Amino acid sequence: MDFDEDEYELDGKEPAPVACIDCSNYHGVEYSGNLIVCSTYPLGWDGENCPEFINP
Question: What's the predicted TM-score (pTM) here?
Fold first, then answer.
């Protein structure tokens, strides 16, 4: 799978990590310089297959 960061940058949100693309749990907003990816893994999942992935 080819990853294009620009394709996943929406409404001032940071580009989604690969494991978060199309996940309904993805938040991707920066607060005081800290990017919050989601509530389960605030720093993002370290890998390609997050166990909390939910496809809407």
Answer: 0.66
